[in-house]
UniProtKB/TrEMBL annotation:
SMART domains: HATPase_c, PAC, PAS, PBPb. GO terms for cellular component: membrane. The chain crosses the membrane at residues 281-302. It comes from Pseudomonas kuykendallii. Pfam families: HATPase_c, HisKA_3, PAS_3, PAS_4, SBP_bac_3. This is Multi-sensor signal transduction histidine kinase. PANTHER family: NITRATE/NITRITE SENSOR PROTEIN NARX-RELATED, OXYGEN SENSOR HISTIDINE KINASE NREB. The keyword Nucleus does not apply. SUPFAM superfamilies: ATPase domain of HSP90 chaperone/DNA topoisomerase II/histidine kinase, Periplasmic binding protein-like II, PYP-like sensor domain (PAS domain). InterPro entries: HATPase_C_sf, HATPase_dom, His_kinase_dom, PAC, PAS, PAS-assoc_C, PAS-like_dom_sf, PAS_4. Residues 608-802 form the Histidine kinase domain. Residues 455-532 form the PAS domain.
């Protein structure tokens, strides 16, 4: 069976299981806390006092406080925890810095019990002490060298360091007067005085020695004797609770002696330095290990140096092999590239005979592989005689690194001619000199050049015959300025300037723009360039003779992958159209002014007729009614039929009165004199009475004064809108709202009727047209928002008069 490794988890678990199974039952039973034999009265007393307050003096190793975790530890703490477990009571801890503070806590009633005290006459007045539970001897400590036990009776004229004042000091002074005492403040100072050879020995109790012996500073000290004055540790309790003292004695007696020994070993037993803990041992071992390490380091260094040398030579050999392989690969690639190149390559000697030709050159001339070698160049170019060839050789040789280029026509094997672009380059290879001839077939290039020239000629012909100025605006990249790259010959017919003149001056079309329109021209051009969109502008330009023309510029934008942008466009002469457009606008303005004047005259005439109808006809009807009443008073009693006739005439006169009032109101409602707000409310009430459709009206309380013309215009629009609602809308409710917004008077008429589409109302009805024209006359705006089945909203905005607002 193979040996298990220390880190094998399965083996560790198996050993743990065997260890648990092998534990004796007696040990398991001993682990359970033993309960002391208590009387019934003592148990009742503990039942009445389930919690005891423990006071403890913070002194290592008896009691220590971990301030980070706020947890007590130490010999007395573990002892009290075991005692509380056996008595089945709970403990609450209170820590004190010294014994005086502990006594003050007892007097103030803060504690019930305190462990780790020594019985003194003064303490008997405050405490009831238990039997001793631990004996702490006072040890005589000396240097480890010598190591023999010391008899206290034989110590004569030696110096001993110990803490004073203390009971041990008094004991030594009375028992061993031949010993010279050196007073120190604490046990650490006593041990340091011994290390510094200021004294021969030091007296330290076992608890402090056990704590200090763990430090490397005191590893060379050892116990050489016992002073014979041990410190007996007891548990003190309140004097007014004698039952507690008896219970504590019973509990201490019930504690196993093995547990007390374990507490003594864990907290008080000094830990003497072993062989591995000796400073001299470790110094010698460190020196030996240092020497071994230096030898090993030298061996490793020497081995690494030899290894690096071998690796360097191996790397150099590998590099040389790689370079050679790379050179061979590059040579093969070069040869393959030359053979597969689309450019013909010839190596020619000074006598113009070909020494090497690649496959492309053989394919150009139509020869089989190897057929071009040792042939003179004169066989392919009859004009290349020997004198000309030697001249080219001297020129190429005198300008090494440069080259000569020219075009020629070479004869193919089938007798045809091949347009060729020839480049010559001088080359030295080994001990020979060559001219490398590069041949390029330019047949397609010449064909494309001819096509391009024909296309340019066609474009110039089209541009020169277009009735306008053709141009191209180019921008090399996004951050570069744009410039005119082409201007057609039509510029001379349009503005009197030749195209070359406009481009050479750098002015382009911008120099033709009228000064008053130059800002608008620049703004539209900048917007097109910045936003990469088409360019459109209309404005005035000046010809060479100073005459004014209207021009329209339209240019389409095109963009390329390299960032270049091109705008191709035409400048049209629209002077005639613009003149007609201006005349038409002026005519429309005059017609609108005439319409406004006629409307004003009509309203004035309506007002005059309304006044005459109301005043003149009303006065005559009043007189007629008076005469009828006089006749009724004078002759009604004479004839009953005459009375009925007169009553009928009076009713007709009343109806005529109402008809006169309706006619006058229709011509010009008198309510307009009270303001547009009152007129709107009045018209809404009349609409409700006539149509039966509820009309909700919202008008401001304090409306700014409005001119009569604008008030009448708004009123007529409202009348027409309500008439349309009654005739066509089939609405259930109507809302009329008048408000002042941003210096304008706004009238909004909304209904919940059937609405209409975009093309509705464009027939023979002029209602909407009349309302819109009336608003244009007043300088206002009219907007209609309607959709089928969604109702209609009519909005009117009229500016308030400046002198009124």
């Amino acid at each position: 069976m193979p040996a298990a490794r220390p880190g094998n988890p399965r083996m560790i678990r198996l050993l743990s299981l065997l260890l648990v199974l092998c534990l004796p039952l007696s040990a398991i039973a001993a682990a359970a806390p033993a309960h002391p034999p208590l009387s019934a009265a003592q148990r009742d007393w503990l039942g009445e006092h389930p919690q005891l307050r423990v006071g403890i003096v913070l002194q290592a190793p008896y009691a220590e406080l971990d301030r980070r975790r706020q947890q007590l530890s130490g010999l007395n703490v573990e002892l009290m925890n075991q005692l509380a477990a056996s008595l089945q009571v709970q403990l609450s801890w209170r820590s004190y810095p010294d014994a005086a503070a502990l006594e003050r806590g007892l007097r103030s009633g803060q504690i019930d019990i305190a462990p780790g005290l020594s019985q003194t006459p003064a303490g008997l007045r405050l405490w009831l002490f238990s039997d001793p539970y631990l004996r702490v001897p006072q040890l005589l400590v000396g240097e480890r060298e010598g190591g023999a036990a010391v008899d206290m009776e034989q110590l004569v004229g030696v110096s001993v360091a110990l803490r004073q004042p203390s009971a041990v000091s008094d004991y030594l002074r009375d028992t061993y007067p031949t010993i010279a005492q050196v007073a120190v403040n604490n046990e650490r100072q006593a041990l340091r005085a011994l290390l510094e050879r200021q004294v021969d020995y030091a007296v330290v109790d076992e608890a402090q020695l056990g704590r200090l012996s763990r430090e490397a500073e005191f590893a060379g000290l050892a116990v050489v004797g016992d002073v014979g004055f041990p410190q007996l540790l007891r548990v003190a309790s309140r004097r007014d609770w004698p039952q507690l003292s008896a219970i504590v004695d019973a509990g201490l007696r019930s504690l196993p002696a093995k547990d007390l020994e374990q507490l003594h070993e864990r907290w008080l037993q000094p830990r003497y330095a072993r062989l591995g803990e000796s400073p001299g041992f470790w110094q010698n071992l460190s020196l030996l290990l240092g020497i071994l390490f230096c030898c090993a380091a030298f061996l490793v260094y020497w081995q690494r140096r030899q290894q690096r040398g071998l690796e360097k030579r191996l790397a150099e050999a590998r590099l040389a092999i790689q370079l050679r392989e790379a050179a061979e690969e590059a040579l093969r690639l070069t040869q393959f590239s030359i053979d597969q190149s689309t450019v013909g390559i010839l190596w020619v000697n000074w006598d113009s005979h070909i020494r090497y030709a690649n496959r492309a050159a053989e394919a150009m001339f139509g020869y089989p592989p190897g057929a071009l070698l040792e042939r003179p160049l004169g066989d392919f170019d009859p004009q290349l005689n020997m004198d000309r060839w030697l001249g080219l050789w001297r020129r190429a040789r005198s300008d090494e690194g440069g080259g000569l280029s020219f075009e020629t026509a070479c004869r193919r094997a089938d007798g045809g001619w091949l347009p060729t672009d020839v480049s010559l380059s001088f080359l030295r290879f080994a001990d020979s000199e060559y001219l490398v001839v590069f041949l390029s077939d330019v047949t397609e290039r010449r064909r494309a050049l001819a096509a391009l020239q024909e296309s340019e000629a066609r474009l110039k012909g089209i541009a020169s015959n277009v009735p306008g100025l053709v141009f191209r605006l180019e921008r090399p990249h996004a951050q570069a300025p744009a410039a005119f790259a082409f201007i057609g010959e039509g510029s001379e017919a349009l503005v009197g300037y030749a195209a070359s003149e406009l481009i050479e001056r750098g002015r382009g079309i911008r120099g033709l723009v009228h000064p008053d329109d130059l800002d608008d021209y620049r703004a539209t051009q900048k917007a097109a360039l910045d936003n990469d969109r088409d360019w459109h502008w209309q404005g005035r330009i000046l010809t060479r003779d100073g005459s004014l023309r209207w021009a329209d510029i339209k240019a389409g934008a095109r963009f390329f992958e390299d960032g270049r942008a091109v705008w191709d466009g035409v400048v049209w002469d629209i002077s005639a159209n613009k003149r007609i457009e201006l005349e038409l606008a002026e005519s429309r303005a005059q017609l609108r002014q005439l319409s406004a004047h006629l409307e004003s005259v009509r309203e004035e005439e309506k007002a005059r007729i309304a006044r005459e109808v109301h005043d003149e006809l009303g006065q005559m009807l009043t007189v007629l009614k008076l005469e009828t009443s006089m006749c009724e008073l004078a002759y009604a009693d004479l004839d009953g039929g005459l009375r009925e006739r007169l009553q009928s005439m009076k009713k007709l006169i009343a109806q005529l009165f109402q008809l006169v009032r309706d006619v006058a109101t229709a011509l010009r409602p008198p309510i307009l004199d009270a303001g547009i707000a009152s007129a709107i409310e009045w018209q809404a009430r009349r609409f409700e009475a006539r149509s039966g459709i509820p009309c909700l009206v919202e008008v401001p309380e304090h409306l700014p004064p409005l001119s009569d013309a604008k008030a009448i215009g708004l009123f007529r629009v409202l009348q027409e809108a309500l008439t349309n609602v009654m005739r066509h809308a089939r609405a259930h409710t109507v809302e009329v709202r008048l408000s002042v917004e941003q210096g304008c008077l706004c009238l909004r008429v909304s209904d919940d009727g059937q609405g209409f589409g975009e093309n509705a109302g464009q027939g023979k009805s002029f209602g909407l047209v009349g309302m819109r024209e009336r608003m244009l006359i007043l300088g206002g705006q009219l907007h209609i928002d309607s959709s089928p089945g969604e109702g209609t909203t009519l909005s009117v905005r009229v500016a308030l008069d400046e002198e009124i607002a």
